[in-house]
């Protein structure tokens, strides 16, 4: 993920790696000792974390779980989807 992505591309990337993580989790439920699947899962988890971090740095948090530390609760001050927010 070295090339810059716009907001839509980042969200699509997050969706893709999130899907891959869930798919790998389901596979690992029935194949818990598959080292290749575990490695794949870990790689996708890192990719998702990087994409989430990149998104948050450029556009703000995707959900309240990832709000930066501080004394102000600004989750509700961001634009809502009907106000042009892309969450």
Description of the structure:
The chain is mostly helical. Helix content is about 55%, strand content about 0%. The chain is built from two helices and no strands. Helix 1 packs antiparallel against helix 2.
Short description:
This protein is an all-alpha fold. It contains 2 helices and no strands.
Cα-based radius of gyration, to the nearest Å: 16 Å
| SSE string | HH
Number of helical elements: 2
Shape: elongated
| Helix content range | 55-70%
Q: What are the SSEs and their pairings?
A:
Blueprint: H1 7-30, H2 35-59
Helix pairs in contact: 1-2
List keywords for this structure.
about 90 residues, 2 helices, about 0% strand
